[in-house]
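Annex B. Sample input.
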Amino acid sequence: MKLQELIKEIDVLRVVGDTNREVADIQFDSRRVGEGCLFVAQVGTAADGHAYIEQCVAKGAVAVVLEKEEYIKDDGVCYILVKNSDEALGRMAHYWYGEPSKQLKLVGVTGTNGKTTTATLLYKLFKALGYKAGLLSTVVNYVDDEAVAATHTTPNALELNALLAKMVAAGCTHAFMEVSSHAIAQERIAGLEYVGALFSNLTRDHLDYHKTFDNYRDTKKLLFDRLGKNTFAITNIDDKNGLVMTQNCRGRVLTYSTHSMADFRGKILEEGFDGMLLRVQSTLGAVNTEVFVPLVGRFNVSNLLLIYGAAVALGEDAMEVLRILSGLQPVNGRFETIHSPKGWTAVIDYAHTPDAVENVLKTINEIVAANAGKRTEPAQVITVVGCGGNRDKGKRPIMAKSAYQLSTQLILTSDNPRDEEPADILKDMAAGLTNEELRHTLIIEDRESAIKTACTLARKGDVILVAGKGHEDYQIVKGVKHHFDDHEVVKGCL
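Annex B, continued. Sample output.
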């Protein structure tokens, strides 16, 4: 592609050199630069790409997009000065791969919790409706039926647009993607055109990156601010930030709730560990009916309303959507139950924020209370939970406190310590508990031992929550990734 064609998509401050030249590839990673490449110098959190410009020129780069004017040289290479290299990369990547989002009905899902369940079940729903569809999620990506390993909630701009282009080539008509706050802040989604955006909820998370909750909220809000006129947004009015998200949205705004008047409403009629009976009502599609779904918890009622609402907003028949939803299974590691022959139940969940842990434990306690009359002894709720290293330290004591208050027995343990000392993370969590509460809490650094201890303590009718890792099958210790799967440990205890 001609360089002059490619840079039409970005806001250029200054050009030094000839733009009438062919570009063979676009890269932001200096290690992947080759002959004829366009190198985009980004200012990252760990490294500054501008420091590698000279190295990239030596490897054959014919053009450089950069933010810092002092790195421009008269060496035959074309330099394109921009205000934001991240945004420039996103827009160029979209154009480079043939503007794939314009050829798909692309729906973005953002929020703190529920993104993976919502995006994944939307993908499964539309596959069941007979469409070719794509998925971009934390757990796994799909190009129609082809699984593609996921390394981030939202891939970098080049990988993201390459996957969307593969979806178009495979004949996909719809694509559903999780949109993380990091991806929005780093402009990985720049240039993409969405037909709809969905908001799940907002609680404390990623403050190690965004620094303040307001920054975190306002970053999420950008997804809705940038929607075009012929789009839709669906927001959760049970969340105090739900209407904040859509206050500047140019698209059609729809709402959902589990206890207020909204376009999509849902109420739990009956609930157990294998599913729940709901009453679903909606103004769009004119539905007022009961449906059983194999998912559990008020948070999943919200997720299901969001999924249902998105499908109806995309033009699907309301009753057919509910029929298919009644048969969809939970996403891997999201309130996933394992039943022991001894009568206890383990719940494996990705909950890794104070709000998510609280929601899951409230659901467990509600189900335990509903079944209390069937037992001679009160059931225990045993919680195994940790916090990740190199992440928001402020949430650690809050998570421990929430887990303690809603559990019969709390076990604090490791969860991806990364470059931190596990003992330091546990100390931060323990700081949220009083001395009396600590006397009733077990602190077991080794996660496998912690889970095995919980299984040993469990009696018939008890429930174990293993929180934090969900679908993940690894632990990162001192920067090294080791195989570790909560499912395997629990099943080993059976």
